[in-house]
Amino acid sequence: MTIKYWLGLYAVLIRSSVRSGMQYKFNFILGTILAALVQFAEFLMIAIVLNKFGAIKGWSLHEVGYLFAVMTLSKTLYRMLANDVHHLEKYLTTGELDQLLTRPVPILLALMSQNFRLMPAELLQGSTILFWSLHGLHASGQITWIALPYTLLAIVAGSVILFSIGLATAAVGFWMTRINELQTLTEDSAQTAARYPLAIYPAWLRSILLIVIPVGFVNYVPSLFILRGEYGPWLMPAIALVAGIVFCLAMKFWKFGLSRYQSTGS
């Protein structure tokens, strides 16, 4: 089977999942509105603090807004396309994973196409903050138009990195089953920490966020070049390479974990 075939099959499964979810339009609209309010309130709290103190370790409000927006959009892209990878525990504890294993498609593809989520609130919030941040930085002369395509590259690479972290964490479930607490550490807490400049953290924590759980490569590392001109243009291809390496390692770990999986009936 070719990659084109599997991508086409994934698109068909996604359309089916979307049609199923849109049967409850009121819940979708209400959930979208509430999510938008929560997302904007979260950044508003950061903005209030920065407005009072001016900057954090030399990082302005527009720069922190940029970090926040890139992380939000990268996470949204990952969770839109592979939402139920994050919810593998449910499939393990209820036996639903065994049902997916009987389908004539790769298990990861089947899992990724389950419960596809449209996330307009997160897309709107992230895009709005990103536009505001880039506009402010451009008006001050800190960046030029080239920051936009570099930012889009960072978001795509960032979504691959976040997906890889989520996939590796989910694979631990093949041994532990219960992984919610681990996901809180490797995904939720790590991503929240990376919405701020890593320069504010001690060296040991920066090392964790760059090496052990590499969320720093989603927004902080690319921002060093895009916003501050540090290191040089080679940094962006290097980030794409990091994303590719992390993805390959996560896939190998996933396949290894799946080979050790014992179904609920065994």
From TrEMBL:
Signal peptide: none annotated. It holds the Pfam family ABC2_membrane_6. The chain crosses the membrane at residues 29-50, 154-177, 198-222, 234-254. Keywords: Membrane, Transmembrane, Transmembrane helix. It comes from the Bacteria. InterPro entries: ABC-2_transporter-like (IPR010390). PANTHER family: INTEGRAL MEMBRANE TRANSPORT PROTEIN (PTHR36833:SF1), SLR0610 PROTEIN-RELATED (PTHR36833). This is ABC transporter permease. It comes from Paenibacillus azoreducens. The lineage of its organism: Bacteria, Bacillati, Bacillota, Bacilli, Bacillales.
